[in-house]
């Protein structure tokens, strides 16, 4: 059976009261003839063997826990549990069990453990008759009480009954009175028993008991009982810490007594869960789920009560932004807001939205802008945490605030620039704060969370703002540490180049690595804005200076930045890299690395492998032309030989293409020469028949020869590009001149004049009249129908220079 809904683990409770895993399989509910009833069958998913066969008895008490767990007892000391992979599967089997027993599936317990003989008298008996019978609350019976509490923990039904018994008899307060007595008598054995009892009562996981135990008059005694762990040589001093060391600070007076009590209670219960109680085992985690819920709902109440108290919050904000507020007071105010925001994470999404909107309306962001610029490290750290909550909640809200800030003459006052400066100036050697702030910046500039349909221009507007006002602040340390020093030059030490401007300080190198990581993110996600910025500042050249760093991680960051740029396969970037010869520092780093097979070596080779595989022609040609001699000795990978091969292939293709072009161009010239020779004969014959006055001929001929010489000189300068289209352009220029020179002469005379033109150049086309020539008599003149569309022909020839003019016949 492959249905994951029915996939379960089978557990049994051993003699040491520990759950043993019997295997994983798939459960089904099937009628078994041999047992004469509906049974739960679990077959192993590995080999299909039977892990469990349990008949659903009408009198067995089944309990559903945590939505995916069904627990029951088949014998006095044989408890079973099915842990489901999915809630849906648990619900299906639970409904089947309830159907067999005739119970409502909405119940979590199918049976009360009452004998059949007593069922008829259930309605007549008081509710307490079903409770566990507790021994008298006396010093002499503490061991018995401890054994009873410990023994019921394995049975959900018995835990329920014990909890009811403890509540009905006010037993908790009696036990805590015995605790005070034992402490006065220094009865260590009794105190150890009380530790087991109180710990067991907490594991009963009942909110009603917690309300009693964590009340103001009981909670310190509960903490006292938990100090006497039998496993410890000396008891802990938790009460001393809670009453003397831990101090409750009111940044502003809290007049609401209920709110004060809730804050105290939550702190102490959290202390019990986190500090006093030992870490629960896998099977004990569920025992304290109600305790976790108790703390959770307390926090929700605290946040709600504070949020509703606008007077208190307004006063807190006023003191936070007041310049007269003392530093110690301001530190407490910021810490208050930090705790406030941390508690807000327990709210439901809609309530959390309302909470952060309340803070935004009260002016949390302007307050943070002031606080983050202060010198106090603790205040700055707390303010950073608060900003983290706000950015995680709504990056758009923070971006909107930043863009609405008045543009001051000094960009340093902008919130994002304050964040960047804090990142740059982090005094922590490990740059813990800088890493956190970089994460904030990355979230703010991430276009993925700028796609809200309500504000489609947010991405464009914010990125333009960021690159205009903030990017120069972010890159300042990088540019400062890679600036060219006129007094310094590369110094040779053996075979390794050392650049003096390259940072050797580890903390500075870490900071530059963080900045490079952010810039690499920008290359990938801000293609337009980042491209302009890189070109305008020559940023890649400055980054590649870091390839000389003695810190390999920083050199790798610089290489990763270049790799991301090349990975875009943008010819704009490629031309920039070629023009700046920016492969040189990368190749120098590869050669300086020598024969060491390390991450730097592999990363550089991967860069060239990418260029080869993607066949980036411009970069391949540049690398082979300029660096192949230095790289051809590297033979342990075929990358560079492959680049050379790609280069040669492309060179051969270009050669073949050029030869094919020459072959295609030659017949055009031959055809044109033949056409010109034939044309001369036709025009000579036309000239003899028609004639032309000797007065017009010299003027036209001189203009023609002058234009012809000019064109021939142009053709000699651009001979490889000369085609018939060139002669066509000459024709157009001369035709205009001829038309101008022959103004007033008839079209026949103009044609006759062109026929006497020597040298066989495009005389026929040169003498084209402005209007079509009509054939008359026996003269064999050529009609040019296309000349009416002379302007269209001119446009076509400019677009296709190899295309010959269409000539009539």
TrEMBL record:
Domain of life of the source: Eukaryota
SUPFAM superfamilies: ARM repeat (SSF48371), PH domain-like (SSF50729)
Domain PP4R3 EVH1-like residue range list: 5-101
Cross-referenced Pfam families: EVH1_PP4R3 (PF22972), PP4R3 (PF04802)
Annotated Basic and acidic residues bias: 688-700, 707-720
Composition bias type Low complexity, residue spans: 737-763
Annotated region described as Disordered, given as residue ranges: 669-700, 707-726, 737-809
GO cellular component: nucleoplasm; protein phosphatase 4 complex
Domain Serine/threonine-protein phosphatase 4 regulatory subunit 3-like central: 144-649
Family to which this protein belongs: Belongs to the SMEK family.
Function (record text): Regulatory subunit of serine/threonine-protein phosphatase 4.
Protein name in UniProt: Serine/threonine-protein phosphatase 4 regulatory subunit 3
Source species of the chain: Alosa alosa (allis shad)
């Amino acid at each position: 059976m492959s249905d994951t809904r029915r996939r379960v683990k089978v557990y049994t409770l051993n003699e040491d009261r520990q759950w043993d895993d019997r295997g994983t399989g798939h459960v089904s509910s099937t009628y078994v003839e041999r047992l004469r009833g509906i049974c739960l069958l679990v077959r192993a998913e590995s080999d299909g063997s039977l892990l469990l066969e349990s008949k659903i008895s009408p009198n067995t008490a089944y309990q559903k826990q945590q939505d995916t767990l069904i627990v029951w007892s088949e014998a006095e000391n044989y408890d079973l549990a099915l842990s489901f992979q999915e809630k849906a599967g648990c619900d299906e089997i639970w409904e089947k069990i309830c159907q067999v027993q005739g119970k409502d599936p909405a119940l979590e317990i199918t049976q009360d453990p009452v004998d059949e003989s007593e069922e008829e008298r259930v309605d007549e008996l008081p509710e307490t008759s079903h409770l566990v019978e507790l021994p008298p609350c006396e010093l002499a019976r503490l061991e018995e009480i401890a054994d009873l509490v410990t023994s019921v923990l394995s049975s959900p039904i018995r835990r329920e009954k014990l909890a009811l018994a403890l509540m009905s008899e006010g037993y908790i307060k009696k036990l805590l009175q015995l605790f005070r007595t034992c402490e006065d008598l220094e009865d260590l054995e009794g105190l150890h028993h009380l530790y087991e009892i109180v710990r067991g009562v907490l594991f009963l996981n009942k909110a009603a008991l917690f309300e009693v135990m964590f009340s103001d008059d009981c909670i310190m005694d509960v903490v006292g009982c938990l100090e006497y762990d039998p496993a410890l040589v000396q008891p802990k001093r938790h009460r001393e810490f809670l009453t003397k060391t831990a101090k409750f600070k009111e940044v502003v007076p809290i007049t609401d007594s209920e709110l004060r009590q809730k804050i105290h209670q939550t702190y102490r219960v959290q202390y019990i869960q986190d500090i006093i109680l030992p870490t629960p085992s896998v099977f004990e985690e569920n025992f304290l789920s109600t305790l976790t819920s108790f703390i959770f709902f307390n926090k929700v109440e605290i946040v709600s009560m504070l949020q509703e108290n606008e007077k208190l919050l307004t006063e807190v904000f006023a003191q936070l932004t007041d310049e007269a507020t003392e530093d110690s007071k301001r530190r407490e105010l910021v810490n208050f807001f930090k705790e406030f925001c941390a508690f807000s994470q327990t709210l439901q999404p809609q309530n959390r939205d309302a909470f952060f909107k309340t803070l935004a309306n009260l002016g949390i962001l302007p307050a943070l802008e002031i606080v983050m610029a202060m010198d106090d490290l603790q205040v700055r750290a707390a303010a950073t945490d608060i900003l983290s909550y706000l950015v995680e909640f709504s990056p758009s809200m923070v971006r909107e605030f930043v863009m609405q800030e008045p543009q001051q003459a000094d960009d340093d006052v902008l919130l994002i620039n304050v964040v960047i400066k804090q990142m740059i100036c982090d005094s922590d050697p490990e740059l813990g704060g800088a890493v956190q702030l970089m994460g904030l910046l990355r979230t703010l500039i991430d276009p993925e969370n700028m796609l809200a349909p309500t504000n489609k221009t947010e991405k464009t507007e914010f990125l333009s703002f960021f690159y205009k006002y903030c990017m120069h602040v972010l890159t300042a340390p990088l540019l400062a540490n890679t600036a060219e020093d006129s007094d310094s030059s590369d110094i040779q030490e053996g075979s390794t180049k050392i650049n003096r401007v390259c940072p050797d300080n580890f903390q500075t190198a870490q900071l530059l690595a963080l900045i490079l990581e952010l810039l690499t993110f920008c290359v990938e996600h801000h293609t337009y804005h980042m491209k302009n910025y890189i070109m305008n500042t020559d940023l890649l050249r400055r980054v590649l200076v870091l390839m000389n760093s003695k810190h390999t991680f920083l050199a790798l960051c610089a290489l990763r930045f270049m790799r991301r740029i090349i990975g875009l396969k943008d010819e704009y970037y490629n031309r920039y890299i070629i023009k700046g010869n920016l492969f040189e520092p990368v190749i120098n780093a590869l050669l300086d690395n020598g024969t060491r097979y390390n991450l730097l070596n592999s990363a550089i080779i991967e860069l060239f492998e990418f260029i080869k595989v993607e066949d980036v022609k411009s970069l391949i040609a540049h690398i082979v032309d300029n660096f192949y001699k230095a790289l051809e000795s590297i033979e342990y990978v075929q990358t560079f030989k492959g680049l050379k091969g790609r280069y040669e292939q492309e060179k051969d293709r270009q050669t073949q293409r050029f030869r094919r072009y020459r072959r295609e161009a030659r017949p055009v010239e031959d055809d044109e020469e033949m056409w010109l020779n034939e044309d001369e004969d036709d025009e000579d014959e036309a000239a003899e028949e028609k004639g032309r006055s000797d007065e017009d001929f010299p003027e036209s001929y001189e203009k023609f020869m002058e234009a012809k010489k000019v064109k021939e000189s142009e053709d000699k300068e651009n001979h490889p590009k000369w085609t018939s289209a060139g002669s066509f352009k000459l024709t157009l220029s001369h035709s205009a001149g001829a038309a101008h020179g022959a103004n007033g002469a008839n079209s026949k005379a103009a044609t006759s004049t062109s026929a006497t033109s020597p040298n066989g150049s495009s005389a026929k086309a040169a003498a084209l009249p402005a209007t079509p020539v009509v054939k008359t008599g026996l003269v064999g003149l050529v009609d040019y129908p296309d000349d009416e569309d002379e302007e269209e022909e001119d446009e076509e020839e400019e677009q296709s220079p190899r295309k010959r003019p269409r000539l009539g016949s």
